[in-house]
Amino acid sequence: MRLPHLLAVALALGVAPGAATDAPRPPPVGLLGHGLAATLLAPATPEPRGIVIALYDPLGPTPRAGIYEQQLVAAGFAVLVILGSDGEEDALERAIQALTSGAHGPTTPVGVLAFGAGAAPALRPVPGIAARALLYPGCAELPPAPDAAPLLLMHGSEDAANPLAACSAAARAFAAGPREVRHIVYRGAGYAWDRTNPGYERTAFLLPRPDRQGYVTARPWPELGSLSASEVAGFFSTAISRPPASASPDR
Description:
- By secondary structure, this protein is of the alpha/beta class.
- The chain has helices at 6-12, 65-74, 91-100, 119-122, 164-175, 222-239, and strands at 29-31, 36-41, 50-55, 77-85, 110-115, 129-135, 151-156, 181-186, 205-208, 215-218.
- The longest helix has 18 residues, at 222-239.
C-alpha cells in the first residue's frame, strides 16, 4: 500500500491534524473519480505510522467519531472517514483505489475500523488490508475473514444485537484461521455504547440493528467510549505498525 500526496491535499483544504473531539468536523475531501466522499485527518508527523479507514453504519460518523479519530491521530495514524459512496458495499474498495491511485509515497500499512453494519463491507476480500477492528458488528451475520490480517472484535455483554454466544462463536471461527484475534467484551455495555447525542449523553435511544432487522436499544456510556477508543488505537499500534523508537517495550 502506498500513500500518495492525498495527506498534503487534505491539509491544504483545511483538514486539521489532530482535530479535537469537540471541534467542528473538517470539510469532506472528495476523492474524484472514485465515487467516494471522505474526510481525511492527518497526524502532526512527517509520515503517519499507518492509515485507518473508518466504515460506519448507515447513521454515519455521528459524535462518536471524534473520540476514535482523536486517539488514532494522537497515536500517529492518519484516519480516512468514509462519508458516502456510490456503492455502499464497495466503499472499502473505492477507498483503497483512491489512496493508491498515482501513489509515489512511502509504503504505509492500512487498517479498517468498522462500526455496526460497516463490519460486513470491512470483511470483503480487498487486498492490502493489514488489520481490522470490528465494533458491535452483528456477530451472527458476519462473513468469514478473507485473509490473515489481525482482527479485533469488540462488543458489550448486554447487546441484544450481538449476543455473547454468537460473538464468541464468531471469535472462535476467526481464530481458527491464520490470524491473531482479540475478543473484548465490555461487561454491562449494550449496543453502540460510544454513540452520544450532545445534551443527551445519558439518554437511551433506538438505533437500526446491524442486520437491519428492526431496532436495538443503545445506552450511551461516555467513559467506556473513551476506553474503547484507546483500545482501538492500541490494537492498530501493535497490529500494523512498529512503535516509535522512543517507546518502551510492552511488559
